[in-house]
Amino acid sequence: MLKGKQKRYLRAMAHHLNPIFQVGKGGVNENMIKQIGEALEVRELLKVSVLQNCEEDKSVVARELAEGTKAELVQLIGSTIVLYKESKENKSINLPS
Fold it and tell me: Where are the chain's structural domains?
């Protein structure tokens, strides 16, 4: 579980990132979870955009992605989800304690 200070730090880092995945009409599926999981292993921190035509509620999408990829939900702001997962091999983010 992330502490408040760590979430603030990650939110500040994520501010400059562009979403690299989009959840649309099809919602969340296994393939998407797999791809986001692989991207998290490389990047540790990423944004996912929930499109207007997505039929699921964005908070449900955020929870499904976080649980499916075993990542931490850092933030859900507007239609953008910020996820963090510590990388096993490409660790580049050092969180404040």
Answer: 4-84
Do residues 45 and 9 touch, judged by C-beta distance below 8 A? no
63 CB-contact burial (10 Å; exposed 0-12 / middle 13-18 / buried 19+): middle
Phi, psi for residue 45 in degrees, rounded to 5? -135, 125
* CATH architecture of residue range(s) 4-84: 2-Layer Sandwich (3.30)
Rounded CA-CA distance 90/14 in Å is 17
Instruction: State the burial class of residue 55 (Cβ atoms within 10 Å of its Cβ: 0-12, 13-18, 19+).
Output: exposed
Contacts of 9 (CB under 8 A, 6+ apart): 95, 96
pLDDT of residue 77: 96
Render pLDDT for 22-80 as a digit per residue (tens, 0 to 9): 999 999 999 999 999 999 999 999 999 999 999 999 999 999 999 999 999 999 999 99
Residue 1's pLDDT is 87
